[in-house]
Structures are given as C-alpha cells and as structure tokens.
Amino acid sequence: MSKKTIVIVGASRGIGKALVELLAKNPAHRIVALSRDVEKMEDLFGDFENVLAFPFDLLHNVRDEARTIFEGIGKIDILINNAGKLVNKPFSEITHIDLMECYQVNVIGVMETVQAAIPLMGDGGHIVNISSMGGFQGSVKFAGLSAYSTSKAALCSFTEMFAEEYKESNIRMNCLCLGAAQTEMLAEAFPGYEAPVSAEKMAEFIANFALTGDQWINGKILPVSLSTP
Ligand SMILES: NC(=O)c1ccc[n+]([C@@H]2O[C@H](COP(=O)([O-])OP(=O)(O)OC[C@H]3O[C@@H](n4cnc5c(N)ncnc54)[C@H](OP(=O)(O)O)[C@@H]3O)[C@@H](O)[C@H]2O)c1
C-alpha cells in the first residue's frame, strides 16, 4: 500500500487513539494526531517514529490554527474528523453553551478543519467524517441526545454538500455513522451499556474505509452498527 499522510482529529483516547495505533503500525504512513491533550498523545504514541502530535481545540475558530499545522506537514492524503463532543441532558435543561459547544466541535470545527486541509490535498484525497447512528435519518433516537444527535445529522448533511461542491475535484468525502463502540463517550451516553464492538475493532473498519473507500464512493452516509444503540 502506498505511503500516506493521515490526519486524525480527536486522537487522544477511544476510537481516535486506536486509529493512530493501528495506522502507525505501517511505517510507510505518517500520522498526524490532533487533540487538546498533546502531552497525553506524546506519551501514548512516543514509541512511533511516524506519529506527530499537535495540540488542537475545535472549540475555537480553528481554520488558521489548522492551516498552520497542515502547512507544516505538507501534503495530506487522508483526514479523519473523529473528535466529538457529547451532551447528554434532558432537552429542557440544555443550555446555550451546550448547544454552541456541541455544534462548534461536531460541525463548525470540522468544516473549518476541512477548509484548511483542502489546499494541502492537491489533486485528491479522502476526508472521512465520523458521525453517529443518532444522526442517521430514520434511526432509533434516544432521549437526552438532542444537541449531540442533531449536530451529527448536520455533519451528515455537510458530507453531501461538500461532495456536490467538490465533485469536479478528486477530493472525496464520506461519513460513517457509528453504532456503539466501547469508549468513555459511550459510557457517558449509555451508562452501564456494554457495546458489542471495541474501540479497536471500530478503528479497524474506519482505517480500512479511510484507506480504500474513496475508490468507490463519494458523498455517502453509511451506518456502521451491529446494535441499538
Ligand atoms: N463510541 C461510540 O459508541 C460512538 C458512537 C457513535 C459515534 N461516535 C463518534 O465517534 C467519535 C469518537 O468517539 P469516542 O467514543 O472515541 O469518543 P471519546 O473517547 O470521548 O474521544 C473523543 C476524542 O475527541 C477529542 N476531542 C473532544 N473534544 C475536542 C475538542 N474540543 N478539540 C479537539 N479534540 C476534541 C478528545 O480529545 P481531547 O479530550 O484530548 O481533546 C478525544 O480524543 C466521536 O465523533 C463520536 O461522536 C462514537
């Protein structure tokens, strides 16, 4: 498989951490790991010579920050927008800040990161957005997740919009709507529930899809789920 530069946003734990560890096993790839906790990522990935970790907080306007990081690394082949912000509260208790943060991290920050990445993707590449079954139209919905699931639905919609606007380019974007995988976020969303899929197993699917899926599909929203939730 050819050498790729792969940016993973939200790489310090859960599925993103598993993605870095899996993809970095191929020394031909260069992995760029982003999250707010750079010290943790340096501890986690210190043994990999092909992993570069940078601090990155999607809660701000991230376009300039992302551009600076991306220009420093040169060409990007794959961008995996994996970071996510969960709010789990009854609808009547959700605050303005909850809504703003959820939409900033899960939608606006992703769109700004993509704006910064496009010039470095040149004549092709694959952007994979990590959404949720909660944001997949027609799926079973769960009380408490209205801020989170609607923001993930917006991420699905962005995927379709981007693919239309960039259809003349070879940059392809797809969206994976994940079902339950055992992580800290899952434990917060569904306390006590045991997912049938580990973070590592989910990362296997995402990694394979990110490396190859763009040969066949563009602008698609795919459910990736064994269970409800
Ligand atoms: N696990 C599931 O069952 C499940 C189901 C459906 C969808 N998903 C989606 O899958 C993705 C990964 O989920 P996970 O379960 O692995 O979550 P997780 O364990 O909570 O990890 C979330 C990652 O996102 C990063 N992140 C959070 N806020 C950020 C911010 N403001 N700026 C930059 N990075 C930020 C975190 O890093 P720092 O805290 O270090 O910044 C962390 O690395 C998310 O998009 C989630 O919505 C997960």
Explain the overall architecture.
This protein has a single domain (5-224), classed as Rossmann fold (3-Layer(aba) Sandwich), CATH 3.40.50.720. The protein has a 7-stranded parallel sheet with strand order 3-2-1-4-5-6-7, sandwiched between helices. It contains 7 helices and 7 strands. The protein is an alpha/beta fold. Strand 2 (30-35), helix 2 and strand 3 (51-55) form a beta-alpha-beta unit. It is globular and about 45 Å long.
- Over the alpha carbons, how many angstroms does the gyration radius reach? 16 Å
As a percent range, the share of helical residues equals 40-55%
Report the mean per-residue pLDDT as an integer.
Answer: 97
CATH H level, superfamily name: NAD(P)-binding Rossmann-like Domain
The first-level CATH class is given as Alpha Beta
Q: How many separate structural domains?
A: 1
Order of helices and strands: EHEHEHEHEHEHHE
- The total count of strands amounts to 7
Ends distance:
35 Å
Approximate shape: globular
Q: Which structural class fits the helix and strand makeup?
A: alpha/beta
Q: Count the helices. How many?
A: 7
Bound molecule kinds, no repeats? NADP nicotinamide-adenine-dinucleotide phosphate
Largest sheet: 7 strands, parallel
* Major sheet strand order: 3-2-1-4-5-6-7
Query: What portion of residues belong to β-strands?
Result: 15-25%
